[in-house]
Amino acid sequence: MCPVTTTTAAGADGLTKVYGEGEARVVALDDVTVDFHSGQFTAIMGPSGSGKSTLMHCVAGLDTPSSGRVRLGEVDLSGLSDDQLTAVRRDRVGFVFQAFNLLPTLTALENITLPLDLAGRRPDPALVDAIVAAVGLGDRLGHRPAQLSGGQQQRVACARALVTSPDVVFADEPTGALDSRSSAALLALLRRGVDEFGRTVVLVTHDPAAAAYADRVLFLADGRLAGELTEPTANRVLDRMKTLERVA
Amino acid sequence: MWRAMVRDLRAHRGRLAMTLASIVLGVAFVVSSWVLADSTAASVRATDLRSDVDVVVSGHDLTDADLADLAALPGVSAARGVLAGRAALVGADGKLVAGPHDTAGTGWDRTDRFVLTAGREPRGPGEVAAADGTELSTGDTARVFLADGRQVRATVVGTFGYRTVGSEPAPRLAYDQDSARSMFGSYHWIELTGEHIAVPPAPGRQVDTARALGEQATADAEAAAGSTRETLLAFAAVALLVGGFVIANTFAMLVTQRVRQYALLRAVGATRRQVRRAVLGEAAALGAAGATGGVLLGLALAFTALVLAQDDTEFVVSPLGILVGYAVGVGVTVVAAHACARRAATVAPVAALRTDALTPPHRTRRVRVAAGLLLVAAGVATVAATSGVDDLGTTERIVGLVGGIVAWLGVLVLAPELSAALRPVAALLTRLGGPATRLGARNALRDPRRTAATSSALLVGLALVCAFATLGETMVSMFGDTVRATVPATTTVLRPAAGDEPLGTDVLDRVRDTPGVTGAAAQRYGSATVATGGRTTVSAIEPDAFGTLLTPPLVAGTADLRTGFVVGTNEAAMLGVGLGDQVTLDFDGERVTRPVVGLHTTTEAQPLFYLDVAAAPAWLRDRTTTVYATGTDPAAVRTALDRAFAGRPDVRVTDREGVIDEDMGEFAAVLAVMYAMFGAAVVIAIFGVVNTLALSVLERRREIGVLRAVGARRRLVRRAVRVESLVICGYGGITGIVVGVGFGAVMQHVMLGRELFAISVPYLVIGVSLAGMVAVGVLAALWPARRAARTDVLVAIATR
């Protein structure tokens, strides 16, 4: 069902991230090398503290690695200034966080087009219309976030992440604060982002049901890669997780 | 509870810094005013008034015979005559320096009167000692104009400090006894030393004990210090009021940020009362901390001012002044925080369990709108009702002023709702500007209460500046207009060079004798009591002066002074008299009753009554204050008069523009001091803006994190904060200017009796205020914007 590609949208080589010094030294990522294929939906899973969020932050240009390289499209992120990183995030990356994704003073539609606005780019009306239709917000586009439900807010955030046609959309536990129906709607929207809009999605989650929407699941434990699964189902993911936790 | 509160206070130290600064400034203003007033009073009290004199006998023409008689009285151990007389110092421009000059010259003696500060005592003709503060020093030449018109020059051989018996004016120049005798003639007073002295009364002679004179001097000084204190404290009160806005706003924000914490306290069993008390306790502690800083700063400021003034004033700190500083600091903070404390107490315990963003309930919106509208309507109606000029009595004036204040209060109450007027502005900015403008403008509108409260502080400060600027500008232009309307450009004006002293009686005759002069008249300006009203100002003048030399704009009747008074229209309205009515003026006992024959438009800066000099009391007839002259060739007249009076240091030859410049210069200085005083309030208001922005940025950390994550550069975040700051400052600035000019219009109406809208808009002050607001907006945003731009994206978006 997924298109098989050989190009990578993003990746890391020998990525290591260390926090603190001396006694307090914590190795969050230990020499991780990973590729995220274009047009694929990848889920990163792992127990708490396995380093999955850190991996995402580093690859997305939110955090700087201690050593190793990070590629976003054809850009090498090492050694970029804050303004350059900001521009990369704006133009090549889309984000969906667990909560508080939206600016309360902007309407839903303004939130969706915010990255274009920041870049000073004119939105492509056809793309915006298609994404807005996919979000299914109907007449609530002119509302402020406070007037939307949690699920609606997350779908707006998802639309915002898709609107710039980024190389990669990173979603960090986007369903963490949602009920199961809203979760399903949001994950379906991310899936459509891959299938219909041809985007690359990286989803960090601890929910096997969420991971089941992905084409490929990467497992992380103790800051290292601990295997992967293609064409996952919730049950297979759950089994793998149990094994990992037992080992840990 | 207390422990939680203290920890809380410590944890929010950074957030309270600006509030603390505004309390410190307000309290410092109070304390330094207090200390300055105390110090000036004490230095007069402590100036060693002379102890070598017991009785002072003063009177006209005291002779050596009088001195001998007094010296022979029982109990008198020593008697000294003090020579004193007019010795008017001539300045570098060849005209007299500012007075008083009447007893500025004296004879040097070796009593306690003089304390030599440099050089030596004067020993013979051509030598003089000058008082400290005259800008003369040893080696200079003092040129002096005597009462009989003689001019004498003497070399300054020493300088001195002077001690008084009571509050008599200190002389400026001391000559040796023989020179002084030849210049001043008789004794001005005679000092007696001894015990149980009984001086027999004599006509024209006054006897005072030195002790009584000293006590009077101390009482006068204390009264003067008291009024200085009151004036300064009035300005300090404005600063404190503005500080109150800042404090109230800070607490409103802190309470909003800590709703969940209060809810938790309530959930674990704290009563509403305890929560309220915790907030008030926090306010009291903050107030006390601010007051401590304020007291110290106030003392330092007062000390610096005294050192800079260099007049040996003693630095006096009264415990009362410090106590007042603390009372004011704690009081203002607690009162300002009171509403917020009540709001904190209304937080429901269940709020602790809710996850959505919470704000404590506001229930007072409708009440606020209603009250605000009512106040504005009542104020405007009152002003409108008293806006007439023709029947503007004292009551109408006071009522009108109160109306203006009420309308102003109404605007303050309405301010949060008025900020809705910013919406179209924000919409426009959004359309025109980029994302930074949009975000900044919307953030400023997000909490109208907060924006309004922040800008209200600016509103109060700027409105005061603009109100007084409007009043001042109107007074200046009014004064200019009246002088220009009354004195034609072709008239040459001769005025006393040294302030309020009258011109010599010979000036008018000399002007008349000057070649080319065809018309001359002398104005004798004085005051009198109207039998049916208060004090008024009178000009006694030759009736034929009207029409050529002076042209007061006549609106009714005739300008013929021979038949009666010509009276200012607004004065006539105040007195309730019209054409044909008899008016009695009381010149300190001498009454003049005449009908009103003409009405002219004038202002209170010009004579209100014109009177035929022939009908004036004798003493006023000789008190020439201004001489007006003209001729067929006015320019030639001016040149001739300039030449004729070149050797007369006591007469300044000028024209109407010179009169305007001279009189308005002093007024501009008074206004400048007033702006500086209100400036303190504006500075406190700026702290308020910084405070609001800093707290808002803290509150929005997560939002800023998201913004940065989706691609906003640091510069954009900084710009958004700057736009927000500019919107807040602009709102406060523009409402402040509008309210200020409006209130200024009311002030000039009730104080000067002019049409309500006959104002001169102080464009310069408004321009400076607007430019200042932009500068303040940018400056106030600097620190908060940097903090915002530094927001760590990862920390901000972390869910925990």
From TrEMBL, chain A:
SUPFAM superfamilies: P-loop containing nucleoside triphosphate hydrolases
Keywords in alphabetical order: ATP-binding, Nucleotide-binding, Transport
InterPro entries xref list: AAA+_ATPase, ABC_transporter-like_ATP-bd, ABC_transpr_LolD-like, MacB-like_ATP-bd, P-loop_NTPase
GO MF annotation, one: transmembrane transporter activity
GO cellular component: membrane protein complex; plasma membrane
Pfam families, alphabetized: ABC_tran (PF00005)
Domain ABC transporter: 10-247
Annotated PROSITE patterns: ABC_TRANSPORTER_2
Designated name of the protein: Peptide ABC transporter ATP-binding protein
TrEMBL record, chain B:
Keyword Zinc-finger in record: no
GO CC annotations, alphabetized: plasma membrane
Cross-referenced Pfam families: FtsX
Transmembrane segments: 232-256, 283-309, 315-337, 367-386, 398-415, 452-471, 672-698, 723-747, 759-783
Keywords: Cell membrane, Membrane, Transmembrane, Transmembrane helix
Compartmental location: Cell membrane
Mode of membrane association: Multi-pass membrane protein
Domain ABC3 transporter permease C-terminal: 234-347, 677-792
Superkingdom of origin: Bacteria
GO molecular function, one term: transmembrane transporter activity
InterPro entries: ABC3_permease_C (IPR003838), Macrolide_Exporter_MacB (IPR050250)
Family the entry assigns: Belongs to the ABC-4 integral membrane protein family.
Name the UniProt record assigns to this protein: ABC3 transporter permease C-terminal domain-containing protein
Gene source species: Actinophytocola xinjiangensis
